[in-house]
Amino acid sequence: LDELEPYRYHVAYQVADVRAAIEAVRAAGGEMFHDSPVPAELRPWERAFSQPGATPGPPFELLEQVGEEPEPFRIDEE
Length: 78
What we know:
alpha+beta, 1 helix
């Protein structure tokens, strides 16, 4: 990780409750970039990122699935 460009990469954690996870990070002294979850662009997820540089290692993302995954797009061959 020391050889990677700072903040270009991050680690993602799936959590059952992203709001509770944000509060747990704050209670442990961590800083979050997002004060509340934001929707992910292409999937049924809410997410929040840690504040880059506020914790050792790469930034992290907290993800909560809030809906069903869409069916994958398929091209039928006939």
